[in-house]
Each structure stands twice: as C-alpha cells, then as structure tokens.
Design brief:
53% of the residues lie in helices and 5% in strands. It contains 19 helices and eight strands. Strands 1-6-8-7 form a four-stranded mixed beta sheet. It has a two-stranded antiparallel ribbon with strand order 2-3. Helix 6 runs antiparallel to helix 12. The longest helix is centred in the middle third of the chain and has 48 residues. The two termini are 20 Å apart. The N terminus is likely disordered.
Length: 561
C-alpha cells in the first residue's frame, strides 16, 4: 500500500502572484545592503519561502556566467583545422617536466610496462603505473589556475601522456577536436573544468571537504549574495522571454480571429450588403475578448518582470563593484582544492567504467575509436543531448517557487574508456532554483549515444528522488517505479533497473517498439512524457499506446486527475 504525505497544497492567490513578481525576493544580508545603500528592512510577517526555501551557504563562489537557454545551440561545425599539438618532439618530456620525483617514477613504470611480456608481471606494473599516473595528474591539476603547456593540457583532456601510443590518424583526429567552448553550453573538458574551479567560477564538487583560499567574512558574504542575485537574474530573464513569447503568440491568435471576422457573405437582394456575423464569427468575438484580457495580463506581468530585472541588474553591478573592492572576486581556490577536485573526477571515471572495465588512464591506440563522431567531443555531446531532449522535453525543466526554468547540468567530458555516463549530483545543494547538477560522460566509450542516455536516466532518477525527499519510495516518479519494482519481487539495484528502462524508453518505445512492462510504460508515459506530436504518432502504433493516449484525453477533459 502506498502512503501519501499529510500535506495539502493550496493554489497561489492572485495577490500573492502579483506581490512576488513586483517585489524582488532576493533579500540581501543587512550588512551588504547597508554597504550598497539599499533598504534591507523587511515586513514583520516572514514570507513562506523565506522560512522554508533552501539557504545558500555562507561561503559561495561566483556564478558561471552562462545564461539559461530555451534549447541547445545547433552545431554546424564539428571539427577545426588540425593543430600541431602532437608534432613537438619534446611532447613527452614537457608533459613530465616540473612535476618532481613522480615524473621519473611514471616514466620508469611506463617503460617497464611497455617492455614486459609476461601477463602476471605486466598486470603488477600496470596497477603500479595507474597509481603513479594519478599522482602525476594531481600535480598537474594543482597548476590549473594558470595556463598549462599543451602536453599537460592534452594529458588532462584526453589522457595523452605519450603521443606515440596512438597512431598518426588518431593524433590527427584529436588535433581536429574544437579546442575552445564557443557554444555557451556548460560542457567542459577536464582541463577547462579545473580552470573554472581555480577561477572560482564553479564550486568544487566536494565543498565540505575542500579548503578555499582565505578571504574575509564580508567578502564571502558578498560572493554568496552575488551568486544568489545572478541566479535570480537568470530566472527573471527566462521569465521575461516567456512572457514576451506569450504576448507574441496571443497577438497572432487575435489577428487570425479578427481576419476571420472581417470575411462576410453578401446579400444580393439587398444591394450586396454584408451579411450579419455567423455563429462561428460571434464565437470568435468572444474569444478575442478573452484573449485581450490575457494579453493585458501578460503585458502587466512583463512590465513587472522587466522592472525587477532592471533592479536585479543594478544589484549585480553594485555587488560586483563591492566584490572588487573587497577582493572577493579574486578569492580563487588554492591548489589543494584542485587536487581534491581531480580525485572527485577520478571517482566519476571509476563509475563510468565499472568494476570490470578498462581502468588504464592513458590513451592507447587499441582502445580508441577511429572516427571523431564516435568520441565525446563537446559538439557531439551537444548534438546527442538535443536529440534526447526532443524525445524527453521535460528532461532539463525544473520548477522552483512556481517558476519553471530549463537548467542544463554541467557536463564533464572524462578521459575514460567507460561504458556509461553518470550523474554525480542532480543539482547544487544550496541552489535548487538555478544551480546546475554535474554529469560525467566518458570520451572513449564503446557507444557514445548509449553512454549519454544512461547519464540522462541517472539524472532523471536522482532529481525525482531528491524532489520526493524522504517519500521517494512512495511519491512521484521514483515512488511509482519502486512500488512496481517491489510488487514484482525483483532483485538488485532499483536505480539501475530504472536507468535500463529509461534507455529502452528513449531508444525503443519512442519508435513504437514495445519493450517495457505495461505498468512501467504507463509510469513513464505520465511522468516522463513524450512530446505531443510523438504521442499522436504512437497512438496508431499499438493497442497499449492508444489506451494511454485515450487516458490522456480523458484527463484533459476532466481538467486533471
């Protein structure tokens, strides 16, 4: 039997809606507000969301500067002209230089590993080399606050320690991968990710176990306030675009109805005068009246949103200026944080590979695909994510305080031979409104699209579980799936089973191939819905789809459950 939470949710009142949109909900610390010359006084009656919304931690770094978008950018360029990354005869020497004794150890172990032919002895040197390699990578990671030499950068990005371990064509392919992130999407190679952490633009993955540079208490408060204000700013910007789009669509609809109203039949026996409005035209007049009311409401909401956005932008400017004065903007993390971050990335890599996979960290010819479309370049990943989102349009949608935004998680491209992608965290612990989660995608997987779909299934599960909180076995997507799973007396990891079913949902069921259990199909149909045009197509592909479609129609007619 399923148990539900003793909680009654009331619809928001129009007065409250107007108040929330008119007043900036991002209250500043009184100390900071005083510095900025702003009034920090609040009403004696606390707001519900002020009491129960997640609080940001005292220590917070700046936002990543990436805007909230409605969809992925369309990728038209997948390669660049090859760059001479691997032409330097001193590549290997530069990759190892400046890293102390660990460089000599790595060189010695790699040399022995490549020479030895006995399988047992080779396995021993392999394990010893893996440990030493990660010590070398950690040493290089600690220097990511400054520009790295190309060989060290390629080591972190693709695992290329010795360029002759891959053939000429493979070196040419890697040198054709587009180097810089011109897409504006939150997708990074490891060296880029560590540089973002070093600059303080992104929080470390394990913030409670790492040490930040020593900055004053006020500077930390300013950074925290700046992060929250930027998040609020992004939400307002998305809301403004939504309202403007709604106005445009409504205006077009009014014009369409008005054009129909102007078409009159002629009465020939009365000198061809225009006939009275038909029944349909009269209904159009009523619809125009209702649409006009909506248009005025949208316009009012847009005005309030623009006003709040302008106020928020002023706050951001003031906070940025104050951060500069207090030195908060220079509060970059120290090298130990970067080392800890690399260890977190190593854990992600282990998760993508699994216990029985290939954990060798260096890129070698026999493990690498021969075509650039088969590896996880930034451009390939964006293209595949866009394909998945077309099938699962709610994948990146997040609703917080009655505002829905599309939040794409940070995606880290890992130099790994992993089978699957993983979700490290569904969203930032202290910023559920606009904080991005973290996804790891192996660059050299067997099937790139499959690895990305598994990561999205992991993301879907974790977000649903976090949303349901203590009631994840009873409510929402995870609750319904868990109850089906236990009712069937299935064994194993329920999350893994869900991810496998999500994979079938995206790859098979979306094409009309019925591979899921009937109940699971119903759970996914309601909780991970396909876009309407795909539902319209599937209703003719089988009895079960048609039954689900009819249930949708009945629900729509009854205005909900």
């Amino acid at each position: 039997m399923a148990f539900t939470r003793p909680w009654v949710q009331f619809p928001p009142s129009p007065q409250r809606e107007m108040s929330d949109s008119k007043n900036n909900s991002q209250e500043l610390d009184p100390e900071i507000a005083n510095l900025l010359g702003l009034d920090s006084n609040k009403s004696d009656n606390p707001d519900f969301f002020d009491l129960f919304a997640d609080e940001a931690p005292e220590e917070e770094v700046q936002g990543d500067g990436l805007e909230i978008k409605e969809k992925f950018v369309e990728i038209t360029k997948f390669e660049q002209d090859p760059k001479p990354y691997f032409n330097d005869k001193d590549y290997y020497k530069i990759a190892l230089s400046g890293e102390g004794e660990i460089s000599q150890k790595v060189h010695s172990l790699l040399s022995d590993f490549l020479k030895i032919t006995d399988p047992k002895e080779k396995l021993t040197y392999r394990e010893r080399f893996i440990v030493a390699y990660w010590q070398l990578a950690a040493s290089i990671a600690g220097k990511c606050g400054k520009p790295l030499p190309v060989p060290k950068k390629m080591l972190l990005r693709f695992g290329v320690l010795l360029q002759t371990l891959i053939n000429k064509d493979q070196r040419l392919m890697l040198s054709s991968v587009i180097e810089d992130n011109d897409t504006g999407e939150p997708i990074f190679y490891v060296d880029e990710w560590l540089s973002k952490i070093a600059a303080g633009e992104i929080n470390p993955s394990v913030t409670d176990e790492t040490k930040k540079s020593k900055v004053g208490k006020l500077a930390r408060k300013i950074n925290s306030a700046l992060e929250k204000e930027r998040g609020y700013n992004q939400s307002l910007s998305a809301l403004m675009k939504n309202k403007a789009s709604a106005i445009k669509d409504t205006e077009a609809l009014i014009l369409e109805k008005a054009a129909s109203i102007r078409k009159h039949d002629r009465i020939s026996k009365y000198e061809n005068i225009s006939a009275p409005y038909s029944t349909e035209q009269k209904s159009f007049l009523n619809e125009i009246q209702e649409l006009s009311k909506k248009l005025l409401q949208y316009d009012k909401e847009l005005s309030y949103t623009i006003e709040n956005l302008e106020n928020s932008l002023e706050k951001v400017k003031a906070l940025e200026q104050k951060a500069k004065e207090e030195g908060a903007e220079e509060a970059a993390v120290d090298s130990q944080v970067l080392v800890e971050e690399l260890m977190s990335l190593r854990q992600m890599i282990k998760m993508t590979i699994g216990r029985k996979g290939n954990h060798f960290p260096v890129l070698m010819q026999q493990y690498m695909k021969s075509h650039i479309k088969d590896i996880a370049t930034r451009e390939n990943v964006i293209t595949i994510l866009a394909e998945i989102e077309k099938i699962d349009p709610g994948l990146f949608k997040r609703t917080f305080k009655r505002q829905t935004n599309r939040i794409v998680p940070y995606t880290i491209l890992l130099p790994s031979y992993g089978e699957v992608g993983v979700c490290w965290e569904p969203y930032e612990k202290f910023n559920r409104a606009t904080g991005r989660g973290r996804i790891g995608i192996p660059i050299f997987s067997k099937e790139l699209k499959n690895a990305i779909i598994y990561a999205m299934g992991d993301l879907r599960w974790q977000i649903a579980k976090e949303t349901a909180s203590y009631y994840w076995m009873e409510e929402g997507l995870t609750g319904r799936y868990y109850q089906w799973y236990t009712a069937k007396k299935m064994r194993g990891d329920v999350k893994e089973a869900f991810i496998n079913d999500y994979f079938l949902w995206i790859t098979k069921e979306a094409d009309g191939m019925q591979k899921l259990d009937k109940e699971v199909r119903g759970i996914f149909w309601r909780n991970i819905p396909f876009p309407q045009e795909l539902k319209d197509k599937l209703r003719n592909r089988g009895f079960f789809y048609n039954e689900l479609y009819k249930k949708d129609m009945n629900i729509a007619m009854s205005d909900g459950y």
